[in-house]
Specification:
The protein is mainly α. It is built from 10 helices and 5 strands, in the order αααααααβαββαβαβ. Strands 3-5-4 form a 3-stranded antiparallel β-sheet, with helices on one face. The protein has a two-stranded parallel sheet with strand order 1-2. Helix 8 (188-202) links the parallel strand 1 and strand 2 (209-211). Helix 8 (188-202) crosses helix 9 (260-273). The longest helix is centred in the middle third of the chain and has 15 residues, at 188-202.
């Protein structure tokens, strides 16, 4: 979005989420995950639920069985029973682990390190030397005590850290505002939900999905945008009639090569991939607006600004 949202920046300043140093996320929070979410954080939660004796498949999708397992865990721990994994439930789920451990909690750690640090550790539950080295590197990166032991502070910072998309998921990288690949980061949920929508859209044989600016690795202001600060906003491009949106250039909804039907299918895929977690999509096609699929906003003729949301977020603009 091409505007400055002052209240959003105020929240970020208070939360300590603006970039600048290794302490840029010293006040990181556990990202709330709930029914409809997907991604590395959900997968880590499922392994942590397994570690705590709950029966749940580790598939990275927060479905009915994950809700049930979260409720059972919350009941056992005397927490509020809502099936939503917020900061209290996250903190209760995540044990302190270290070299030599071998359990499902280590699998959760390996999933998070792979997603947040772009690694390829085997997800085998073994806290090996390679895992310890990755933990120390992350702790140094985050500006926290680099002792190789994964306790509450490391878990919180790792869960909060942004994820990087897999462009093999029917995506192509487009950076129209000159921010380059540095602006491809977003929350694990936002990335995974967009990836799933792109994979689903691939079945229509209408080309790949152009991925524009999302966020910087640790959030914060992005030149040319007023709101891509918290990892839940991702710009994508509309679909062309020749399916060449990744190679033939950017269009607007007024262009002769704009494919409204295909763009509608893409929007439907986004909602299906993240049920209850698409807050709003800014795009100025009047037909899609009249259908309730998009919302008008200045300077959004040539791209869709997808805003994901969570059940609980420090910024009310991102609360579902």
């Amino acid at each position: 979005m091409k505007r400055v949202v002052l209240c959003a920046l105020t929240v970020l300043l208070v939360a300590g989420l603006l970039p600048g140093s290794a302490q840029a996320y010293a006040n990181a929070f556990f990202p709330t995950q709930s029914s409809g979410n997907r991604g590395a954080d959900v997968l880590a939660i499922q392994y942590l639920l397994q570690h705590n004796g709950q029966s749940v498949a580790a598939d990275g999708v927060f479905g009915t069985t994950t809700v049930a397992a979260a409720k059972a865990f919350q009941t056992a721990k005397g927490l509020g029973v809502d099936g939503i994994v917020g900061p209290q439930t996250w903190a209760a789920l995540a044990p302190t682990i270290r070299s030599g451990d071998n359990n499902a909690a280590v699998k959760a750690l390996q999933v998070e390190l792979n997603a947040k640090r772009r690694l390829s550790l085997p997800v085998d539950g073994v806290f090996s030397t390679a895992v310890r080295d990755a933990v120390v590197a992350f702790q140094s990166h985050a500006g926290i005590g680099a002792d190789g032991i994964v306790g509450p502070v490391t878990w919180r910072n790792l869960a909060w850290h942004y994820d990087y998309p897999d462009f093999a998921a029917n995506l192509c990288d487009q950076d129209p505002d000159g921010n380059g690949t540095a602006a491809n980061w977003a929350t694990s949920a936002a990335v995974a939900q967009l990836e799933q929508a792109a994979r689903s859209f691939a079945s229509t044989n209408q080309g790949r999905l152009p991925y524009g600016d999302a966020g910087f690795e640790h959030g914060g202001d992005i030149p040319g945008h007023g709101s891509h600060d918290v990892g839940l906003d991702i710009d994508i491009w509309p679909i062309r009639t020749d399916s060449a949106q990744c190679t033939a250039g950017r269009i607007t909804w007024q262009s002769a090569t704009y494919d409204r039907a295909a763009t509608r299918q893409l929007i439907q895929a986004l909602h299906a991939a993240a049920p209850g977690h698409v807050r709003i999509i800014f795009f100025n096609d009047p037909t899609l607006i009249s259908e309730g699929l998009t919302t008008e906003w200045p300077a959004h003729d040539n791209h869709l600004h997808v805003r994901f949301c969570e059940k609980v977020h420090p910024n009310s603009l991102y609360t579902c």
